[in-house]
Amino acid sequence: MSSGKEEDAAPRRRLSCTKYFDALWFCYSPVHQMQQYYRLGALDNCSGKWSALYDCLALKTKRASEVEEILETREKSEHHIWSFRSPMEARAHWQRLFGHLDDQD
Q: Fewest 10 Å CB contacts: which of 28, 46, 56, 102?
């Protein structure tokens, strides 16, 4: 018989660092490096990928409750790609961006 606590608890996320390792591995591939050189004129040092992998591995050393709290805080602080506006806010934003086009006759 299981306790009620286990059933009431929210399911814990399983933290996997595989995607960060894969991203780092791809970063050092000739395909990616040549793409970066062609687009930007410099090779990628992959420091961002190293940081993400290190961060993930560091999270694995923490307690599950801490990891859950950290991940939730990060999700809340990230700017969402969509910003929701009321119709009035949307109209004002549209006018600010594209209102000058109405003046051209």
A: 102
